[in-house]
TrEMBL record:
Residue ranges the record marks as coiled coil: none
Pfam families: Sel1
Natural source organism: Rhizophagus irregularis (strain DAOM 197198w)
Protein name: Skt5p
InterPro entries: ISR_Activator, Sel1-like, TPR-like_helical_dom_sf
Source taxon at top rank: Eukaryota
Amino acid sequence: MFNLAVSYKYGIGTEKNSEKAFYWHQIAAENGYTDAINNLALCYKNGKGTEKNLEKAFHWYQIAAENGYTDAMFNLASSYDSGEGTEENLEKAFYWYQKAAGNGNGNAMNYLAMCYEYGRGTEKNLEKAFHWYQKAAENGNNIAILSPFSAAF
């Protein structure tokens, strides 16, 4: 199911078809396939193959994140951070950035560093900000490399 969804999404062996990709992501997600759960959330977020619905995107991010899918943890944190699909909650954003960063997500490492740098969802802590900017840069996050902290690398 998931491979069929991806085939339709990217036009692999067939014509691209966002609606069919969405349909097969939904079927795979309802059967518990975590890659499909996150992709279904992205379909809702971006309005690909279905109407844009940020609340449904948030719902599916939450399911995938709670099932250990690292990219969904980052997406869920971003939703809490921006208030897209849910109420803004900086403490929950910080929590999910921590979880995703701990699982190796370079973008989450960068955002976690910013949380520490600016005191978003946690107490300001420049030493921890530096640590996470450094980890993000070491993991190839180009934005972290451009951080004011990067001069210390």
